[in-house]
Every structure is written in structure tokens, then in C-alpha cells.
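Per reviewer request, we include the raw input and output of the structure prediction for the construct analysed in the revised manuscript.
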Amino acid sequence: MSAEEFAELTRWADGVAGARLAERARIVLACAEGLPTVWVAAKLGVTADTARKWRRRFAEQRMDGLTDAPRPGRRKADLVLTGYERAQLTRWARRAKAAQYLALRARIVLACAEGGTNKKVAAELGVSQRSVNSWRSRFVARRLDGLADEPRVGRPPSILLDQVEDVIVATLESTPGQDTHWSRASMAARTGLSKSTIGRIWKRLDLKPHLQDSFKLSTDP
């Protein structure tokens, strides 16, 4: 095993290329330590046949032997996340109350990045295979920006996702100074967006700042 192969296998074993490749990389790395196949299988919780298969595939084809051969028909878009993309998608996926449409798209991409097929991801998340394929393809082509809604015909591009995220986080997780909740005017002053834009964001995401639970330290002695 070359130094380059060892470095790449170590990256895969950490999960950067998905769960399937991580398991295969761990098998090869364990075999490279000189452990018997049955020990490798027991150590990693796989069958001895599985350990033998990936040991042999690596010996014959090196790194290419650990990847799945493309299935006949239309090829599924490859989807590998950077560390930043995974962190941002995880944040979006956890904000289901604030932006359900964005949270669902983030969960689709995260599931696809783990190696799930369109059919499996669709079943797990309760959506159609067509939706999974659409958001997988959009992400591969345009990365995080591909998960935003397309601007309507005849209208200028909508505000950036980061700006929407900023409004959501501020609304749910902070208060404006001594006030108990945000108003359209105070949020507009904070973000630089117009009051009407703030109103549209809140309405679309069903955010009601005056009803948000909040906690403020008392200034009474």
C-alpha cells in the first residue's frame, strides 16, 4: 500500500465519502496491518466473506476496486460533501420548525451522501423518488445554492439563503435589546432588509415573534 493510498483510505474511513466506502476502507486498513481475515471481520462486525471480498478487490484494482460499479441505465449523480457543506446541511436539517422545505431538502442530501439510493432515501423520508432525484441533482450541480427556491419568472432574484437563515436564527434565538420580541422594524434595522421582506419571511415560515418563548434576565435587585 502506497502512502497516497493509505492517506486516502484513512479519509474514507473517517466517513468523508459515505458509510459504504468508510466500511470498505476500514477493512482494507485492518488487513494491511496483517490481521487474519476472520479477525478483521470480527473486529469490524462484518462477515468473513465481506472482508475477503474487499481485500481481494483492493489487491486487484487498488482504490478503484472499492467503489461500486455503475448500474445499467442512467447513472446516479455522485454526491460527496465537504466538511462545511455537511455542517451547514445539518444545521438546516435541524430547523424543521423554521423552514420545513429547506430542512427536508437538507435531509435528502445528507441521506444521499451516506450512500442511500433514491428509492431507499424516498422511503425513509416519506417523499417521492422523483423529489430525491431532483434535489440530489440540484445539489450536485449547484451545491448549497441549489436547495433554494428558483426565482419566479419576471422577478429579480430573491434574497440569499444566508439572509433568510440570519432572520430565522435571530427571530428564534435572540431578542432586540430590552424588548421582549422582534418587530418588523427592529429586524429590518438589524439585517438591512426591508420591513416588507421581513414580513414575507415570517409569514412564509409561520414565524410569530410576539408568540415566541423568550427568557430575559431580570434587572430588579
